[in-house]
Amino acid sequence: MNPYDQALHDFYFTEDHQKLVLHNNYGDPEEMPIDVFFREETQLSDIDLIALDFADGAILDLGAGTGVHSKILQDR
């Protein structure tokens, strides 16, 4: 299991709620709390909500995360 998968697994199934360290191409590594991958619709950013409002018809989720956005669209 890679570190991302392990962090999601541990957050969901255990009390281990550590942070991920993200390495990117645009700056220094940054810490991301794992709970951001398990948020509810009321916790989404404005840009996330706007994007979800544009979703219409059949949706294909090609992500590799927890399906936060897919779950919200399904509930709608």
Structure description:
This protein has helices at residues 3-13, 46-54, 68-75, and strands at 19-22, 30-33. The mean pLDDT is 90. The protein has one domain (3-75). The radius of gyration is 14 Å and the shape is globular. The chain is built from three helices and two strands. Strands 1-2 form a two-stranded antiparallel sheet. The termini are far apart. The chain is of the alpha+beta class and 76 residues long.
Short description:
The protein has 76 residues and is an alpha+beta fold.
The total count of strands amounts to 2
Tally of contiguous helical segments: 3
Number of domains: 1
Terminal Cα span = 32 Å
Q: Any chance you could write out the topology, listing elements then pairs?
A:
Blueprint: H1 3-13, E1 19-22, E2 30-33, H2 46-54, H3 68-75
Task: Record keyword descriptors for this entry.
76 residues; alpha+beta; two-stranded antiparallel sheet; 11% strand
